[in-house]
Specification:
This protein is an alpha/beta fold and 253 residues long. The chain has helices at residues 23-30, 74-85, 106-109, 111-121, 141-154, 221-226, 245-249, and strands spanning 9-13, 35-41, 60-62, 67-70, 92-99, 126-131, 163-168, 178-181, 186-189, 192-197, 203-208, 211-215, 229-234. It has one domain: 3-Layer(aba) Sandwich (Stationary-phase Survival Protein Sure Homolog, Chain: A), CATH 3.40.1210.10. It is built from seven helices and 13 strands. Helix 1 (23-30) packs across helix 5.
Length: 253
């Protein structure tokens, strides 16, 4: 009896929401690889990090074939997608395409990376894909094409859950030099909290933090992207500083 291979199932999530610029290009690019289902926040949830919604009900609404939105966070999207909507099996989660890079310390705050991390925690291979901007605009062709290449590789079946962070330079596809496997760099912001006063005289705050520069260290995502390469960074779910364990163990509290 001939065994027919099951169609691959891919879950797409993001943090830019239902109207994120990178959503449609990613869904279209991945479509030939299998059944693609997208679950995204109903509004932009950039910098939501790994927040889960625990104190209100989440509502899932269809927005056309294979596209859903929820009133939650990017991590909620991954969790509901893997555990409910596609509970019969998910082969891969692709988060993105994010509008703007997620390099260096950005991964701590990024909802795009967090959604991929949530999938990996649930045992599903995942990749977060982010596109650089030029003049506030993104050309998502190179990011979509590279996402397909990564997806094809991960769908072959890694031995354990894989979590990758991909950043694509703000260049047209023909100008991208290739890709490099690199570690996270150091991305620096002018840390600031903007204080304002409302018409009643009460203070309110805007979280500011304009990107200033990134340290151009060899072998980092920042260095690779600046040089015109796509950066690929494997991420670990365990943040333990293993090298510091013996030192801390010797302390006397």
């Amino acid at each position: 009896m001939k065994v027919v291979a099951r169609e691959k199932r891919i879950l797409v999530v993001n943090d830019d929401g239902l109207h994120g610029e990178g959503l449609a290009p990613l869904r279209e690019a991945l479509a030939p690889l299998g059944k693609v289902t997208a679950i995204v926040p109903e509004r932009e949830r950039s910098a939501a990090s790994h927040c889960l919604t625990l104190h209100k009900p989440l509502r899932l609404k269809p927005h056309g074939p294979g596209l859903y939105a929820i009133n939650g966070t990017p991590a909620d999207c991954a969790r509901i997608g893997v555990l409910h909507l596609m509970r019969s099996g998910v082969d891969l989660v692709v988060s993105g395409i994010n509008r703007g890079h997620n390099m260096g310390s950005d991964v701590i705050y990024s909802g795009t990376v967090a959604a991929a991390s949530e999938a990996a925690m649930l045992g599903v291979p995942a990749v977060a894909v982010s596109q650089g901007l030029k003049g506030g605009k993104g050309d998502y062709r190179a990011a979509a094409a590279f996402a397909v290449r990564v997806a094809q590789r991960l769908l072959k079946g890694p031995k354990r859950p894989v979590l990758l962070n991909v950043n694509v330079p703000a260049l047209p596809p023909e100008s991208v030099k290739g890709w490099k496997t690199v570690r996270l760099g150091e991305r620096l912001y002018d840390q600031n909290v903007a204080v304002r006063r409302d018409p009643r005289g009460d203070h309110y705050f805007w979280m500011a933090g304009r990107w200033v520069r990134g340290r151009d260290l060899p072998g980092t995502d920042i260095s690779a992207v600046r040089a015109g390469y796509i950066s690929v960074t494997p991420l670990a779910l365990d943040p333990t500083d293993v090298a510091a364990l013996p030192k801390v163990a010797a302390w006397r509290f």
